[in-house]
Amino acid sequence: MGLDFIGRTLRTFGIVLLIFLPFGYFYFGASATLAVMSGAVWGMINLMFLTEFIKALVRPGGALVERAIVIGVVKFPLLYLTAYALLKVPMFKPTLLLLGFSGIFAIMFLKSLGRIILGLDDPMQDQQIRRRVS
Q: Which of 38, 47, 99, 119 has a CA positioned 20 to 30 A from the CA of residue 92?
C-alpha cells in the first residue's frame, strides 16, 4: 500500500458521504446530517493536510522545510480551531461530529481488510501474476 491508498480512501469516503446525504436528511434530520457531514469533511481535509505534511518532510531528496512550515501553519492552528468552532455550534451534537470525524478511519479499516482478504498486498501472489503474464 502506498500513498495512492489514501487518495482512494478519500474518494471512497466522498462517495459514501454523497450516498449518506439524502438518507441522513430523511431519517435523522437536517441538523444531525449537517453535523455528520461537517465532521466528515473536516476529517477529509485533515487527512489531506497530514498527507501533504508528511510528504514534505519525508522525501528521498531531503525535506522541503518551507512547504512543511506552510502546511503546518495552516493545518495545526487553523484546522483545529475550526474543529473547536464546530464543537461549539449549539445544534451540532459532539457525538455526531465524532461520527463524521472518525468515519474515514472506518473506510480505511474496511479497505485494508478487503485488501488482506483478497491478498492484494501479498508479494508471492504478485510474483505469480507476473509469471503468468510474461
A: 47
The pTM score is 0.82
Residue 90 is placed in which grid cell? Answer: 449549539
Q: Are the CB atoms for 53 and 68 separated by under 8 Å?
A: yes
Classify 119 in phi/psi space as left (phi over 0), alpha (psi -120 to 50) or beta. Answer: left
Q: What is the DSSP letter of 92?
A: S
Residue with cell 455526531: 96
DSSP codes of every residue in 45-89: HHHHHHHHHHHHHS-TT---HHHHHHHHHIIIIIIHHHHHHHHH-
Domain ranges (residues) in the chain: 4-133
